[in-house]
Q: What sequence folds into this?
């Protein structure tokens, strides 16, 4: 769809990282932006800064894991702006799971699924019927990750499983929108091609009590800065993609009605080929051997 001044974009996880960059980019294109996030103070700060810069924003504290909260978000968005054109189901968390997959706590799975998978579904459920009924052009962007969305990442398996689900959910959404011949497009976003400096490494800051860990972690959470320092010490340089570049990729992708928002990357292409080839050859997944650590 063609993005135009006066349209409305809704972004979940808008108070930090990629979501905040998306919100800024839509505002720069003249869109009104509905900012949704569970982290109240960061959300208020983002909204205040954007409003001071001249953007028309509405901030709504939202827990995407809660269907009613997302329905309330849709009510607020339609109440303020009459129509929604762009929906970014972007809020996401790392799971905090440790050890082997059979050692992960059920609550690690429940929390990550509640935000990364149910959160996307709740967005689809709350907004799509209204977007279809409105009859205007629209686009939905669901944030996956190369970790899981492209190939399994056994070192972060809970997260990867949720992100694989986002790909399949978005493929289904796309088919259903096409079957209804709506003017609404759908995309799955793989932020990158490199790592991003965002708050994802500190996702546990927003972990609700109902999914609290039932036993203490064996190792303390590592910050991105600590991880980066450890990589440097091991002689490995890490490349980062600016979040603004991801936002630009999304805006271009919406304009081009591109389903796969997958930035060019030899690394990703190698992973896709290796996995597809293993399936086509009915060969065991040797491409996972580099992950077999400790
Ligand atoms: N950072 C990366 O390297 C990377 C790579 C690929 C994909 N992603 C994905 O990008 C998306 C954005 O993450 P980010 O990297 O900007 O991290 P981030 O932590 O900076 O931003 C995520 C935002 O989601 C919010 N959030 C968490 N739980 C929520 C809930 N229940 N309801 C509403 N909001 C909630 C957080 O408060 C935060 O503002 C996520 O889906 C993440 O999985 C990130």
A:
């Amino acid at each position: 769809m063609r993005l135009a001044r006066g349209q409305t974009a809704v972004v979940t996880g808008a108070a930090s990282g990629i979501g905040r960059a998306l919100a800024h980019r839509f505002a720069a294109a003249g869109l009104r932006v509905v900012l949704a996030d569970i982290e109240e103070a960061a959300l208020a700060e983002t909204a205040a800064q954007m409003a001071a810069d001249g953007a028309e924003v509405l901030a709504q504290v939202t827990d995407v894991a809660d269907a009613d909260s997302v329905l309330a978000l849709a009510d607020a968005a339609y109440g303020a702006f009459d129509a929604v054109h762009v929906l970014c189901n972007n809020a996401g968390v790392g799971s905090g799971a440790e050890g082997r997959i059979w050692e992960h706590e059920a609550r690690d799975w429940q929390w990550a699924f509640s935000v990364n998978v149910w959160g996307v579904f709740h967005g689809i459920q709350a907004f799509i019927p209204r977007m279809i009924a409105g009859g205007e052009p629209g686009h939905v962007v669901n944030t996956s990750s190369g970790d899981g969305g492209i190939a399994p990442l056994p070192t972060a398996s809970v997260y990867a499983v949720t992100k694989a689900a986002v790909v399949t959910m978005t493929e289904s959404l796309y088919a259903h929108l096409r079957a209804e011949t709506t003017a609404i497009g759908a995309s799955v976003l793989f932020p990158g091609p490199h790592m991003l400096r965002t708050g994802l490494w500190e996702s546990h800051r927003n972990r609700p009590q109902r999914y609290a860990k039932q036993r203490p972690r064996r190792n303390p959470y590592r910050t991105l800065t600590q991880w980066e320092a450890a990589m440097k010490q091991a002689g490995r340089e890490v490349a980062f993609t600016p979040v603004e570049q991801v936002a630009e990729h999304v805006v271009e992708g919406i304009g081009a009605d591109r389903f796969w928002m997958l930035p060019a990357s030899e690394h990703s292409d190698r992973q896709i080929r290796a996995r597809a080839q293993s399936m086509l050859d009915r060969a065991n997944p040797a491409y996972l051997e580099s992950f077999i650590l400790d």
Remarks:
- The two ends are 47 Å apart (CA to CA).
- The mean pLDDT is 96.
- The longest strand covers residues 32-37.
